[in-house]
Write a structure and sequence with these properties.
Largest interface: A-B, 30 and 45 residues
Number of helices of chain A: 15
Order of helices and strands of chain B: HHEHEHEHEHEEHEHEHHHHEHHEEH
Helix content of chain A: 25-40%
Strand order of the largest sheet of chain B: 1-3-2-4-6-5-10-11-9-7-8
Radius of gyration of chain B: 21 Å
CATH class of the largest domain in chain B: Alpha Beta
Shape of chain B: globular
Number of strands of chain A: 16
Number of domains of chain A: 3
Strand order of the largest sheet of chain A: 2-6-7-10-1-11-12-13-14
CATH architecture of the largest domain in chain B: Alpha-Beta Complex
Number of domains of chain B: 2
Oligomer: heterodimer
Number of strands of chain B: 11
CATH topology of the largest domain in chain B: Amidase signature (AS) enzymes
Strand content of chain B: 5-15%
Radius of gyration of chain A: 30 Å
Distance between the termini of chain B: 14 Å
Structural class of chain A: alpha+beta
Strand content of chain A: 15-25%
Chain lengths: 483, 485
């Protein structure tokens, strides 16, 4: 490649809010139940029905906007975005256009060696569509034998977070999404699941020669529905654009579809085929005036945000930066960690367990730490037991797993299983004598200077004591006896 | 006089005095429908069976000693763009020919709580688009005063059936004059309340920022009584106004001494029939005799009202009507092989010409590159029109004008020239753009025995002045004509 290129990426992220009811009617939100049961004349777009704004959704959206450092507009209105599609009951989506709820914010993305500040253009509110299910082999509407629409999702409150083109690599894009997701999870207004589609993202991508100020022609990439696909799709698209330019061609402005099977992007529609949405102010709704008092009340509901929390963890608990970020970026982990810190004074120890064995187990079970059977009390009790030398680290792992599976008290698990560490030198000496007698060859090796042999002998002792022997004492005794 | 020509308050008196039963009232109305129905075509659907059974229930309530409230047991027709649960609501369109709503409009719930009796769903211009009721998938409605002539539109059915005795009163909708103009042409009273006073929930939207439900009645007293029932805040309609609803009947006093009346000269110019003008001037004389101060006034921006209206109403309509796509309900072309073709053919075959014309105008006005020049500019001029009215009401209590520039015209006369047809609403349209309350009352008959309507316009939420003036002038005019049908 002759030239160095820089990628210019902007993201549009949709987040479903988990309010009790839909954006413009009293229907419940659904989570994959029987089709078309959470519907009414309003969300089915029946003639004569009218929308009524869900105040809670405005609050949630404002909360997100504020957490993204946006200014909340005191006067905001809804527009109609007109286009025909069978998952749109009214064939227009009630959305926001030139007077969105929040504008001019930013989100800092920690890339390890540097921080990327991504400016937030706007945060606006809208309603979700229904879901289409196509019968037939390809799963595409144009080739289907029949299509079924499920309107349970139609009218679910949605916010869209639009960034400035400040992102410079697929890695930054992925990191931005992770940070954004964590932030919104902290606000407790959405479950932010990319798998379930409650967090979705489209990207605008262009490339330019390094050092240039002008932004190149962009393409919009759709269907980037996982963190992995986001990174892969953007990587592919940037490479594709660079190849076009290097070959002397021009990037054509268009919308492209990411195909996760091939890892490539394909043309969906050109600029000429783009919809004219014919936006105009929604006449069935009245403008929303947001008073300063309301903004302040919402601000008060915003909890400590991840990046603030991480800084505090470093300072208050003396944790390394990595640990602080790891814990602070997950509200459940952070809360659990702090609950433990109130009972047990070695924060690093707690962090190690949460980040290590504990995370491994909950990830494996696909659950959250909140739902696990191990209470902070029990985890702390176990850590104290280890500190007192009552069990060794290997047994501790087993005890921990048992606690995870049964929710049992560590002391009781140790007692019931007779797992307490054997530190009695007399008792251990007897076992060691036995092992030495049984393994004359290994003893010879040791005497010839092979230090590894000690490990083998310790292993035998551990096996004979079912792992309960205090390995430090065993080591001392063996070394003493053989030298 | 025949039972079917009595007003709701007269019938209420008779019910109270046990001079008549509800069943008798309902039967007399259906007899009349049988007699003239075929000639007028005012109904799209009749609910005779359920009406008679409801009448029986009301009679039982009355004989059990129940209080007789306004409109209890009174046969009322409802325009077919107001949703009635389990009863087809077609908007006189093929696309909704078999559409059965799963809910009641708020106004229907309110009437039901008063034990009204639904006679049937009244014919109309398709989706309320028209001024002659010739744009109905179910055929034109005829004017009871002369069946060669139109009843006006779009509430042609609701107006004709009240004029002809096929219902005691009716509910219509008014987007640019659709209650007042047919009331005028049929010789009945028609009222469009302040925008936001009557819930639009369940009214199939034509132009959301202009639509308003209102009554068509035989006199002003019934009109006020009906407003008492249908007006009021509804949380299901975000544009409904949350104010206390007055007792509209309390404004029915024949005393308008000292009332200041403005006559907008822009509504009295060319294109207004001589006879219509004369009737308005006769009424003005009556008002002066009653001690009113009448002056001419100019509202210069009204010149643009018609253009502004057709941009805003059509733009909103183009979006409101896009839900009729054959996907969830309504007419669907079953031969279409692709989604696009299904949309195209369902809508091409389901909508009539006038509806398509307005969808196209509206789509054009909202398109990228045209929005600013049309929709945006129209909204700005709309604000000017509101401003003109606001200024006028600083000086005047009410404004008076003809309701329609002409009396009922011949069926087919204006169908080939939409622009001439649109001019029928020149006097009523500005009122919708400004969201004002206005009434049309009969002001006499023309030489060829056709009714002439007088429009009285009030300031926002000043239904009181409109009703006061209408009641007083109605008494002074003394219109008692009935169509010779």
């Amino acid at each position: 490649m002759k030239n160095q290129y820089e990628q210019v990426i902007g993201l549009e992220t949709h987040v479903e809010l988990y309010t009790n009811t839909k954006m413009f009617c009293g229907c419940r939100l659904s989570f994959g139940e029987e089709k078309n049961i959470y519907t009414c004349p309003v969300c089915l777009g029946h003639p004569g029905s009218l929308p009524v704004i869900n105040k809670k959704a405005i609050e949630y959206a404002a909360k997100i906007a504020l957490a993204l450092n946006c200014k909340i507009k005191k006067y905001t209105i809804f527009h109609r975005k007109n286009y025909f599609y069978p998952d749109m009951p009214k064939n227009y989506q009630i959305s926001q256009y030139d007077l969105p709820l929040g504008v001019g914010g930013w989100l800092d993305v920690d890339m390890g060696s540097y921080i990327r500040r991504v400016r937030i253009t706007r945060v606006h509110m809208e309603e979700d569509t229904g879901k289409l299910l196509h019968k037939g082999t390809t799963g595409r509407i144009s080739e289907s034998e029949a299509s079924i629409v499920d309107f349970n999702r139609a009218g679910t409150p949605l916010i869209e977070v639009v960034t400035e083109p400040d992102i410079r690599s697929p890695e930054e894009a992925k990191e931005y999404m992770i940070v954004l997701r964590n932030l919104i999870l902290f606000l407790d207004v959405s479950n932010c699941s990319m798998e379930e589609g409650s967090l979705r993202c489209d990207a605008n991508v262009s490339v330019r020669k390094a050092g240039e100020d002008k932004i190149g022609t962009k393409t919009e990439i759709k269907n980037l529905n996982s963190f992995k696909f986001l990174q892969k799709g953007l990587g592919y698209e940037a490479k594709r654009q660079i190849e076009v330019l290097e070959a002397g061609g021009k990037v054509i402005q268009q919308t492209r579809h990411y195909d996760s099977k091939t890892g490539t992007t394909k043309t969906l529609r050109s600029k000429e085929e783009a919809h004219d949405y014919r936006y105009f102010p929604e006449p069935d709704l009245v403008p929303i005036y947001i008073e300063d008092k309301m903004i302040e009340d919402i601000r008060k509901t915003i909890p400590e945000l991840p990046y603030v929390k991480a800084k505090r963890f470093e300072k208050q608990y003396g944790l390394p930066k990595y640990d602080s970020n790891f814990l602070a970026n997950n509200k459940d982990l952070a809360d659990y960690f702090e609950q433990c810190c109130r009972r047990y004074n070695n924060a690093k120890n707690i962090a190690n367990w949460i980040m290590g064995d504990f995370s491994a187990l909950i990830n494996k079970e696909k659950m959250t730490i909140k739902d696990s059977r191990i209470t902070p009390e029990n985890l702390c009790k176990m850590l104290e037991i280890i500190d007192k030398g009552k069990i060794n680290s290997k047994i501790a792992k087993a005890v921990f797993e048992e606690m995870f599976n049964t929710g049992g008290d560590p002391q009781k698990i140790i007692e019931d299983g007779g797992l307490e560490q054997i530190s009695d030198e007399g008792l251990l000496e007897a076992v060691i004598e036995e092992v030495i007698k049984e393994n004359p060859g290994v003893v010879e090796q040791f005497k010839e200077g092979k230090n590894k042999a000690v490990g083998f002998l310790i292993g035998r002792v551990m096996a004979k004591t079912k792992g309960k022997a205090n390995p430090r004492i065993v080591n001392n005794i063996i070394t003493k006896k053989l030298s | 006089m025949e039972i079917h020509y009595l007003t709701a308050h007269q019938l209420k008196d008779m019910l109270e005095k046990r001079q008549i039963s509800c069943t008798e009232i309902v039967k007399s109305v259906y007899l009349r429908i049988e007699e003239v129905g075929d000639r007028l075509n005012s109904y799209v659907r009749l609910e005779k069976e359920s009406a008679l059974s409801r009448a029986g229930e009301v009679d039982k309530l009355i004989s059990a000693g129940s209080d007789i409230e306004d409109f209890m047991g009174i046969p009322i027709a409802v325009k077919d763009n107001i949703c009635t649960k389990n009863i087809t609501t077609t908007c006189a369109s093929r696309i909704l020919e078999n559409y059965i709503p799963i809910y009641n409009a708020t106004v229907i719930d309110r009437l039901e709580s008063r034990n009204y009796i639904l006679t049937g769903k009244a014919n109309m211009d398709e989706f309320a688009m028209g001024s002659s009721n010739e744009n109905s998938y179910f055929g034109a409605v005829k004017n009871p005063w002369d069946t060669d002539r139109v009843p006006g539109g779009s509430s042609g059915g609701p107006a004709a059936c009240v004029a002809a005795g096929e219902a005691v009163c009716s509910l219509g909708s008014d987007t640019g004059g659709s209650i007042r103009q047919p009331a005028s042409l049929c010789g009945v009273v028609g009222f469009k309340p302040t925008y936001g006073m009557v819930s639009r929930y369940g009214l199939v939207a034509f132009a959301s920022s202009l639509d308003q439900i209102g009554p068509l009645t035989r006199d002003v007293e019934d009109c006020a009584a009906m407003l008492n029932i249908i007006c009021g805040y509804d949380r299901k309609d975000s544009t409904s106004i949350n104010v206390e609803v007055p007792d509209y009947k309390s404004f029915l006093k024949a005393d308008i001494k000292g009332m200041k009346i403005g006559v907008p000269k822009e509504l009295m110019v060319e294109g207004i029939d001589r006879e219509v003008k004369e009737a308005v001037y006769r009424t003005i004389k009556l008002a002066e005799d009653m001690g009113c101060i009448v002056e001419e006034i100019s509202l210069p921006s009204l010149e643009y009202a018609l253009s502004v209206y057709y941009i805003i109403a059509s733009s909103e309509a183009s979006s409101n009507l896009s839900r009729f796509d054959g996907v969830r309900y309504g007419y669907r072309n079953m031969e279409a092989r692709t989604l696009r073709e299904m949309y195209r053919r369902s809508r091409a075959e389901g909508f009539g010409d006038e509806v398509k014309r307005r969808i196209m105008i509206g789509t054009y006005c909202l398109s990228a590159g045209y929005y600013d020049a049309y929709y945006e500019k129209a909204q700005r001029v709309r604000t000017l029109i509101m401003g003109d009215f606001k200024k006028a009401f600083e000086k005047f209590d009410i404004l008076i004008s003809p309701t329609s520039p002409t009396t009922a015209f011949k069926i087919g006369e204006k169908m080939k020239d939409p622009l001439t047809m649109y001019l029928s609403d020149i006097c009523t349209i500005p009122v919708n753009l400004a969201g004002l309350p206005a009434i049309s009352i009969p002001a006499g008959l023309s030489g060829s025995k056709l009714p002439i309507g007088l429009q009285i316009i009030g300031n926002v939420l000043r239904e009181d002045n409109v009703l006061k003036a209408a009641y007083s002038l109605e008494k002074a005019i003394g219109f008692t004509g009935k169509p010779g049908l």
